[in-house]
Design brief:
single chain; NADH Oxidase; binds flavin mononucleotide
Length: about 325
């Protein structure tokens, strides 16, 4: 019999407020949470997926993994050890992760240290300063990816140049794909207080070709600033050894640990995932990182040259249900 105490209402609020701060593609926030005593299920909300840009549900599951990671960090801050199972019940394909919390003890050292970074982290789409990332920080980020079984590959100048060509091909495909533009238009641009990516978070338009993804490519977003981007961007590719639904969730856990670790070193990160959304281009990114593992996220990492708005979130309560009585 499980004798672990149920979570209090306050604890659930702290855990799920942290979870919903996670990044998700186009900020659809594709999650639902089910609280049963000391166990929290993270489920995929089929109404919040992106069937055109993400037909297999890969990116969506990465976001769910990131939410599960934030939940574990908040639990650690409250003193709960956590264990988790990815896709624990094949009969329930929407059940992406189940997190089991122990009774409270003391602070859980490593994870709880990241709690303060959860609300500070956000996706940055502006230029980076011309300032190198110290090797010790590069190692910390690489190690962070490995804890959850992923790898972070830092690209050299040649590979970065080749990736630049792949990104331009992806941008070109993106801007001519009516279905994608329609789908993205539902989430990107304008004023969006609770979900999607509002104009204020789109970042500036680069004056020259730059390694950045303009989410508004092909959409109408007038009045954006034009600025010069850094000449030598620092790019890392997060990859996993496997390529299935569970690997994508684990990639999300690893991603969020990398992002929170980066935030703790005042680094900013943007994503260049357009080259992973087309199978032929993704295969070429796979070759760039040695051909042994599957690229899941492309990160541009550096010290931000300007400040940027954060995106909004829907209240966590809207995505939460209780099994049994609400505490
Ligand atoms: C799997 C995944 C893929 C993403 N791809 C991109 C991308 O290619 N370009 C981009 O600018 N942002 C990308 N994002 C970032 C989301 O747009 C961002 O997380 C979301 O808008 C919430 O904003 P925040 O990260 O600032 O909290 C991606 C996020 C995830 C989880």
């Amino acid at each position: 019999m499980n004798t672990t105490k149920a979570l209090t209402n306050d604890e659930v609020g702290i855990l799920l407020a942290a979870a919903v701060h996670a990044p998700s593609m186009d900020n659809t926030q594709p999650w639902r949470f089910e609280v049963a005593g000391p166990v929290i299920d993270v489920r995929l909300d089929e109404d919040l997926v992106l069937p055109v840009a993400d037909p297999a549900g890969r990116a969506i599951r990465i976001g769910l993994g990131a939410a599960a990671f934030n939940l574990r960090v908040a639990a650690a801050m409250l003193g709960h050890e956590s264990t988790f199972a990815v896709a624990p019940d094949p009969a329930e394909p929407d059940l992406v992760a189940r997190i089991y919390l122990s009774d409270r003890s003391g602070l859980i050292a490593d994870l709880s240290a990241l709690y303060g970074e959860i609300s500070r982290r956000h996706t940055y789409r502006g230029p980076m300063l011309d300032q190198a990332i110290p090797p010790i920080v590069i190692s910390a980020l690489t190690d962070a990816a490995e804890i959850d079984g992923a790898e972070l590959h830092w690209l050299d100048d040649d590979a970065t140049r080749t990736l630049g060509q792949l990104l331009r091909q992806a941008d070109d495909l993106d801007s001519h794909d009516e279905d994608r533009l329609l789908e993205r238009g539902r989430w990107v641009g304008g004023e969006r207080p609770h979900d999607g990516v509002p104009d204020a978070a789109l970042g500036p338009v680069p004056t020259d070709p730059a390694m950045v993804r303009d989410l508004a490519t092909g959409l109408d977003t007038p009045g954006r600033e034009h600025v010069v981007f850094e000449q030598r961007p620092r790019i890392a590719v997060l990859s996993t050894g496997d390529e299935d639904e569970s690997a994508w969730v684990l990639a999300g856990l690893a991603l969020e640990r990398v992002l929170l670790t980066a935030t703790s070193s005042v680094l900013a990160v943007s994503f260049l995932n357009q080259a992973l959304e087309y199978p032929t281009l993704r295969a070429q990114v796979r070759d760039l990182i040695g051909g042994r593992s599957w690229p899941q996220m492309i990160l541009r990492i550096g010290y931000p040259a300007q400040a940027e708005e954060h995106t909004g979130r829907r209240p966590w309560r809207d995505a939460t249900s209780w099994v049994g009585l609400e505490p």
